[in-house]
Amino acid sequence: MTLHFVQKIVFCLLFVAVAPNGVLGLGDDDFERAPINYHTSLSHDPVAKLLERLQTGAETLEADASGSYLRSLLKSLKVPESSQCLVFSKTSLQIPYISPQTPRAIYFNDSVYVGAVIGSSVMELVAVDPQLGCVFYTLEKEAKDFRIIRDRGQCLSCHATSRTERVPGVVVRSIYSDKSGRPRSGSSTYITDHRSPFEQRWGGWYVTGDHGTMRHLGNAFAIDRDDPQRVDIESGANQSRLPASVASDIHLATTSDIVALMVLEHQTRMHNLITRANYEARQAAHLDQSMNEALRRAKDHVSESTGRRIASVGDALIAGLFFAEEFKLESPIKGSSGFAEVFSARGPFDSKGRSFCQLDLKKHMFRFPCSYMILSEHFDGLPASVMKYVKDELTKILTMQEPPPKGSRLSSEDCVSILEMLRELKPGWLEQVAIQESK
Fold first, then answer.
1. CA–CA dist 367, 363 (Å, integer)
2. pLDDT of 35-66, one tens digit each?
3. What is the pLDDT of residues 361-386, one digit of tens each?
4. 123 forms bridges with which residues in the sheet?
5. pLDDT band (50, 70, 90) for residue 314
6. Secondary structure (H, E, C), the chain
7. Do residues 191 and 268 make contact, with C-beta atoms less than 8 angstroms apart?
8. Is the pLDDT of residue 340 over 60?
9. Does residue 134 register a pLDDT over 60?
10. pLDDT at 435
11. Is 208 within 8 Å of 337 (Cβ atoms)?
12. What is the per-residue pLDDT across 83-129, written as a single tens digit (0 to 9) for each?
């Protein structure tokens, strides 16, 4: 199989400009300049590594009977089919193909997101590099082949804004949709994560699974033009299957699992917080380096402003790790696809059989109020300065020398458990921390 590895230049008025000499230049976002150099830096994300394997012939992708590479791609990237979430709102690159009858499918693991919609020859890929954060690609199917292309600016018009902490990132968006999937004019829109009230979540998405007395915006439409936020939330509640209008054979699964959606929301926020902490620390150090040279200060001098920047992003990251302000469940949650079982079973587990991926789904999403993203390569890629800050503050909190972030549910028992788990599951990271027994 011959692959064409090319780079796509997209003419987007907001992010591409023509310089006086006629040379095309990318937008003036601070992450386009040193030390981040987002678009000119080589990425080492899972899709980039897959491209290397395809180029050397170490791996191939096989089309199924319909000509789709989706199932083969998910297998290569180790993305579970049970993670399928279906969004019918026209809020992505694939607007012409998305409708309530043909929703876009999103699949994910902790470092890759794959979007696919029936009728389109393009799949959207987002992969996480430890230093760059989210990197965007498309897989474009051709007559007898395909090509994978790294995005050069188009995706960032939506994926590098205040909604993503102003870094290249990902979000789960909830809207009020009409019956064709278009957002209702004059209605609100929400970026949702583990803090969001249920009643704001999943507008424009299909949701399958049980959630008791809680209500959300999924599975329903805003049909009143005079009242664009009027939705029959009862009609969309506690659905065990997709509507009959969605053909059962057009997706890999017949579900849009509520547990997968909840994990997706938490994970997207964490990716954005980690990337922001990475960028801020590197940019602050880069500025210090320039100022130290200009002012003839010691090369290792750290300015007060750098300390404040690191503390700001570090505190936000710690709050995310500890699920600060998490919405407390009012009814138990039960998924519909087996995703919860697959996710909880993946580990890693400590010697007492505990894992940060263990779900609760009764009052809270997870059994332990510490994000599994603390074990990710993305987190481990943090610069030493912000990593030290996070580790020091996290240690003080877990040893109960300092209070937890506002809105956290950390108990003394949780602190002991999380410390023990981190010692085993992240060897050497907190090796010298004494565990204080709960009173």
1. 9
2. 999 999 999 999 999 999 999 999 999 999 88
3. 999 999 999 999 999 999 999 999 99
4. 139
5. very high
6. CCCCCCECCCCCCCCEEECCCCCEEECCCHHHCCCCCCCCCCCCCHHHHHHHHHHHCCCCCCCCCCCCCHHHHHHHHCCCHHHCEEECCCCCCCHHHCCCCCCEEEEECCCEEEEECCCCCEEEEEEEECCCEEEEEEEEECCCCEEEEECCCCCHHHHCCHHHCCCCCCCCEEECECCCCCECCCCCEEECCCCCCHHHCCCCECCECECCCCCCCCCCCECCCCCCCCECCCCCCCCCCCCCCCCCCCCCCCCCEHHHHHHHHHHHHHHHHHHHHHHHHHHHHHHHHHHHHHCCCCCCCCCHHHHHHHHHHHHHHHHHHCCCCCCCCCCCCECCCCHHHHHHCCCCCCCCCCCCCCECCCCCCECCCCCHHHHCHHHHCCCHHHHHHHHHHHHHHHCCCCCCCCCCCCCHHHHHHHHHHHHHHCCCCCCCCCCCCCC
7. no
8. yes
9. yes
10. 55
11. yes
12. 999 999 998 888 999 999 999 999 999 999 999 999 999 999 999 99
Give residues with Cβ within 8 angstroms of 187, minimum separation 6.
Answer: 175, 176, 222, 228, 229
The token pair that represents 262 in the structure block: 């909840």
Residues 6+ apart with CB under 8 A from 167: 31, 133, 160, 272, 275, 276, 279
Distances (CA, A) of 94 to 117, 119, 136, 235, 370: 8, 10, 14, 27, 35
Mean model confidence pLDDT for the chain: 90
Q: Which of 379, 378, 262, 274 is nearest to 326 (CA)?
A: 262
Nearest to 366 by CA among 404, 418, 317: 418
Place of tokens 């890629």: 381
